[in-house]
């Protein structure tokens, strides 16, 4: 098969690394890709939202399968674009159609879905510029901290958690009236605060059947001890030690099953990954959010633990016979540590040469914001590289990743030295 991956992060390098291991993959392209994917596949200079450009490329190379990494093209309907085009409709697209991608594209849509299907989640109400006053009144009925969520995609920045009522009211106004997050905050979901520990559950579905992948936990804050600004994720481990078998049975019965049957009942066509952000409150799972793609850096620990041929799984998803696949998981733990540009998630410099990659042993450096320039690998983003390792325990895996990170260098490199500290 000839396969195209859309995206350019550590997630997409991990997909590429896994897909080239499949005997079914004859040729792999990544658009736009990074320095890591350039080593194992062919990078194509195409924007993931340039549907016409993607169409021309898919036809010229007779691509059989498109694996969509990030959410944007899904929320904008890339899968529907393929299905609605007579020349493209035979191509297997891994990722949900637009109607289902709204589970990530609209927080309000996701909350309505969760309520409609009796899936445990925080109580909420949503507001727009016409009823800001009602929003203030709702805030007054809640206890702090106050959780405000921009309805639309806001590059991971659209959630505010505030301790002060007056500040919450003024932020609500700035989101709804002053368009703090542009059109993404034209609606705002205000939610009950849930106190617990977070984890992520990843599910593959063909719209009818589902398979559960290993759990993972990521570390979103920039600073040690989970302090400072939110990032895309600074590290991850899999499996999650506190997700006991008993807890996970609840997740499957109360969350996964009603999610998949809810997609069917609501006629939301879905062939791809469902990323369920969970919080464990006491012993009960509650859904914080849905994403309609894999997580990054969670992919860098989940896919290496999957023993199956990923292309075979994707074929089964396309043909809606995922029930025929038996998922096999490596019993070892995996950990990944993200190396980032100094200053991230705020302003940072790019173009710094990354050295030492050839000296890495026993770990896999997945490239994220890294690119080839004049034969050198240089930084091109905030999150630069994810160092993944296996171990008997997640502590062993983390140790190996740190040993290898010490062999790498780029100017103003930063990473958290406490991944796993809370477990
Ligand atoms: P989201 O984009 O909805 O995943 O929210 C981003 C982050 O905000 C989550 O990963 C949580 O850490 C936090 N968060 C979101 N909703 C809640 C909630 N209802 N209670 C507590 N924390 C929350
Ligand atoms: N690591 C969180 C995400 O991919 O959204």
Q: Which architecture of the domain at 2-97 per CATH?
A: 3-Layer(aba) Sandwich
CATH class of the domain at 2-97: Alpha Beta
Number of helices: 13
Beta-strand residue fraction: 25-35%
Q: What share of residues is helical?
A: 25-40%
- List low-pLDDT spans: none
Q: What ligand species are in this complex?
A: adenosine monophosphate, glycine
| N- and C-termini, Cα separation | 42 Å
Major sheet size, sense and barrel closure: 6 strands, antiparallel
Could you say what the CATH topology of the domain at 2-97 is called?
Rossmann fold
Shape: globular
**Would you tell me the overall average pLDDT?**
96
Work out the radius of gyration: 21 Å
Can you count the beta strands? 23
- Which structural class matches the secondary elements? alpha+beta
């Amino acid at each position: 098969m000839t396969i195209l991956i859309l995206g350019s992060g550590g997630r997409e390098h991990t997909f590429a690394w896994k897909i080239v291991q499949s005997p079914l993959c004859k040729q792999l392209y990544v658009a736009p890709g990074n320095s890591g994917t350039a080593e194992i596949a062919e990078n194509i200079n195409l924007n993931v939202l340039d549907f016409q450009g993607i169409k021309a490329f898919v036809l010229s190379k007779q691509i059989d399968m498109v694996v969509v990494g990030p959410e944007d093209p899904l929320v904008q309907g890339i899968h529907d674009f393929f299905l609605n085009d007579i020349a493209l409709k035979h191509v297997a697209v891994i990722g949900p159609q637009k109607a289902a991608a709204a589970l990530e594209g609209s927080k309000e849509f996701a909350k309505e879905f969760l309520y409609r299907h009796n899936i445990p989640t925080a109580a909420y109400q949503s507001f727009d510029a016409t009823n800001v006053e009602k929003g203030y009144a709702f805030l007054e009925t809640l206890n702090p901290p106050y959780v405000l969520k921009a309805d639309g995609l806001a590059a991971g920045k659209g959630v505010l958690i505030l301790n002060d009522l007056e500040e919450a009211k003024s932020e609500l106004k700035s989101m709804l009236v002053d368009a703090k997050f542009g059109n993404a905050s034209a609606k705002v979901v205000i939610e009950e605060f849930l106190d617990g520990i977070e984890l992520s559950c990843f599910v593959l579905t063909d719209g009818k059947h589902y398979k559960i992948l290993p759990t993972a936990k990521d570390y979103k804050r920039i600073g040690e001890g989970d302090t400072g600004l939110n990032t895309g994720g600074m590290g991850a481990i899999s499996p999650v030690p506190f997700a006991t078998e008993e807890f996970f049975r609840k997740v499957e019965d109360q969350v996964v099953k009603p999610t998949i049957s809810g997609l069917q009942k609501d006629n939301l066509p879905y062939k791809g990954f469902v990323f369920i952000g969970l919080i464990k409150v006491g012993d009960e799972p509650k859904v914080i959010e849905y994403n309609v793609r894999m997580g990054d850096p969670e992919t860098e620990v989940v896919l290496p633990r999957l023993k199956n041929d990923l292309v075979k799984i994707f074929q089964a998803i396309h043909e809606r016979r995922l029930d025929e696949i038996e998922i096999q998981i490596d019993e070892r733990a995996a950990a990944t540590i993200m190396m980032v540009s100094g200053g991230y998630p705020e302003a940072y410099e790019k173009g710094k040469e990354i050295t030492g990659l050839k000296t890495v042993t026993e770990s896999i450096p997945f490239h994220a914001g890294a690119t080839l320039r004049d034969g050198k690998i240089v930084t091109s983003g905030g999150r630069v590289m994810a160092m993944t390792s296996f171990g008997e325990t997640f502590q062993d895996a983390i140790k190996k990743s740190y040993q290898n990170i010490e062999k790498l260098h780029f100017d103003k490199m930063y990473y958290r030295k406490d991944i796993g500290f809370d477990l």
